[in-house]
Structures are given as structure tokens and as C-alpha cells.
Write a structure and sequence with these properties.
single chain, 341 residues, 12 helices
Length: 341
């Protein structure tokens, strides 16, 4: 497994990071099986593990903590905060009050004294970024956190946070974790270039675009709306919606590209993400051991200029075929009161 340096931190991380959202009640509830998957990833050379407090309401962190017993010092461990943990409105967000509580809860569940990377899961419109950075800086200076980052930040929020850190003397965010896949490329226009300008590490999530690039959709098989995510997030799968019809057409064409290159579609998808010079690691999020081993088989795949050009023809650079796949809607768009007098 090849490695790259995580932004300007000096930390060496594997090109594949293991995402653990699917370990626990949200995906695989068998702790022993999930632990075997984590150990398989580590044995294959992955040294970067990414989790979050919200994943299965803390259960994922507990599983990761069990899996890393005796191996913690060899692993770059990342977690995230922001999403509400319970019914109390103050048990979430990016306030100092919650950050101090959230990190202690994560450290306890993970059974560790420190996090290598602590990330803000989403922008918080209700908290001044100066307040958030102040609290996170204290965590770094106390030794509980080695570096800080954020996830799914638009470019303007990314730049604002960098400027605030410089002007207020705070520790600055070192990483961004955006959704990025062949079908969701809008971050190429501004987020990835902004991250490059500030020397940030980029760990991307969703390389298979919520299953669209797993190989099970496209061609004559189409897509069935029968269970799981296709029901819960129908707006992202229903082919009667023009944006999803475009995705289905693109996947069918991408399958042909992969087949002609002698590749599996998931391997084409992860190699595409890693081909961008801004990307440090691509987060893979398998639910089963079989899914993990299949993705690991594509760890050394690189794409030629010809293949990358063909992908650009199918999905133009900077394009999200379905805008809902960006996973972040600015408050000024989501809340009509912010755009009406």
C-alpha cells in the first residue's frame, strides 16, 4: 500500500483509508466480523482509520477501539464531531461546550488517549468559526488531538477558517474530507484547488457514489428500488428523475470503459479519485469482509491519460450529475427566509 504525507502535518498515511461508518447497527452489527475486517485492512497496509461519533451512535468507535488494542501506535486514527448525539440541542454542533464533551466521549469509546485527526463533520452556521477553532486549538495544545480538519466544507468556508486561524493565532485546519467520485465532481472546481493552495490534506469519501459505481447498476439490469438506501434516499436512485437517469447512463458507459481496460468498475472508481493531485487518501467504506478484499485488490491500479480523458467525456470535470450527491446545502439556499426580504 503506497503512502502519502497528510497535508503539512508530516504524518504518513496510506492511499486507502478505512472508513468505518458501516461497522455497527448502520451496517454490520457483528462486532467480531467487523474487527476481522479492520485487522485485514491493517494487515494489507492500510494505516489510516476514519470514524465518527455519529456512526451507529458511537458503536462504530467502540468497535474500532476494540480492533486497535495492541496496534494503536501503528495507526493514524481520525474521528469527527458535529452531528447531534441525542435529543438535547446542545449535544451537537461546533460550540466549545460540545467539542470538549464530544472529544472525551470519543476518546473513551475508542479506548485511546489521543486522536491523530479530529474533524468537524459539517459547517455549523450557528457557531462563530473563531469559537470552534479556539476550542480545537486547546485540544491540540493539550495533546488530546494531534491535528484538526473538517468535512464537506464549501470553498468559502474553507478559506474563512484559514484566514480566521491566521488572524486569531489558532491552530489551523489541516485537512478537508469532501465527497468525490466520478459521478460527483463539483469539488474539482473550487474545494480541491482551495485545499491545494493552503497545503491541506484531502481525504475523500464516497468513491463508489453510494453504490452507483459498485458494479451492480447499469447496463440492461437498470436499478431496482426495492430496499435499503434506494428506498430511504429514493431521490438519489429513482431513474424516473432526470438526474438519476443521467447517472445510470454514465454508469453504463463507465462499465464499458472499465471492461475494455480490464478493470472492475469499483477499481476504476477509486483509481480515478486517487489520480487527482489534491487527494491524499480515498476513504473506502466496506460493510463486509468480501467488499473490503475486493476493493483492496484495486489498491495499485493507476489510470492512463486515455482512460481519464474518456471519463471526462462521460462526466465533464466539475460536474455533479445529481446535485443531491453533494451532501451539503448552504443555509442561504435551504432556508428561504435568508433570501427574502
Amino acid at each position: 500500500m503506497k503512502r502519502r504525507i497528510l497535508g503539512g502535518t508530516g504524518i504518513s498515511v496510506s492511499e486507502f483509508a478505512l472508513g468505518t461508518m458501516m461497522y455497527g447497527a448502520w451496517g454490520n452489527p457483528d462486532h467480531d466480523d467487523a474487527i476481522r475486517s479492520i485487522h485485514t485492512a491493517l494487515d494489507a497496509g492500510i494505516n489510516f482509520v476514519d470514524t465518527a461519533d455519529i456512526y451507529s451512535n458511537g458503536e462504530s468507535e467502540e468497535i474500532v477501539g476494540k480492533a486497535l488494542k495492541g496496534r494503536r501506535d501503528d495507526v493514524v486514527l481520525a474521528s469527527k464531531f458535529f452531528n447531534r448525539m441525542g435529543s438535547d440541542a446542545n449535544h451537537g454542533g461546533a460550540s466549545r461546550r460540545w467539542i470538549i464533551r464530544a472529544v472525551e466521549d470519543s476518546l473513551r469509546r475508542l479506548d485511546t488517549d489521543y486522536l491523530d485527526l479530529y474533524q468537524m463533520h459539517r459547517p455549523d452556521p450557528n457557531t462563530d468559526i473563531d469559537e470552534t477553532l479556539s476550542a480545537l486549538s486547546d485540544l491540540v495544545r493539550s495533546g488530546k488531538v494531534r491535528a484538526i480538519g473538517h468535512s464537506t466544507f464549501p470553498a468559502d468556508r474553507l478559506v474563512e477558517a484559514q484566514w480566521t486561524a491566521e488572524r486569531r493565532g489558532h491552530i489551523r485546519f489541516r485537512t478537508e474530507q469532501p465527497p468525490y467520485s466520478i459521478l460527483a465532481r463539483s469539488v474539482e472546481g473550487d474545494v480541491l484547488p482551495a485545499a491545494q493552495r493552503y497545503g491541506m490534506g484531502v481525504l475523500t469519501w464516497g468513491p463508489l457514489s453510494a453504490g452507483w459505481l459498485s458494479g451492480k447498476y447499469g447496463g440492461s439490469d437498470g436499478i431496482e428500488l426495492g430496499s435499503g438506501r434506494t428506498v430511504m434516499e429514493r431521490h438519489k436512485y429513482d431513474p424516473a428523475i432526470p438526474a438519476n437517469a443521467a447517472k445510470l447512463e454514465a454508469v453504463t458507459a463507465l462499465k464499458k470503459v472499465a471492461e475494455e481496460a480490464g478493470l472492475k468498475l469499483p477499481h476504476l472508481a477509486t483509481a480515478f479519485v486517487l489520480s487527482h493531485p489534491a487527494v491524499t487518501s480515498v476513504i473506502i467504506g466496506p460493510r463486509t469482509l468480501d467488499q473490503l478484499t475486493d476493493l483492496l485488490d484495486g489498491a495499485d491500479v493507476t489510470l492512463s491519460e486515455d482512460i481519464l480523458d474518456r471519463i471526462d467525456e462521460i462526466v465533464p470535470p466539475g460536474t455533479d450529475l445529481n446535485r443531491d450527491d453533494s451532501y451539503y446545502t448552504p443555509p442561504a439556499v435551504a432556508d428561504k427566509s435568508l433570501r427574502r426580504r
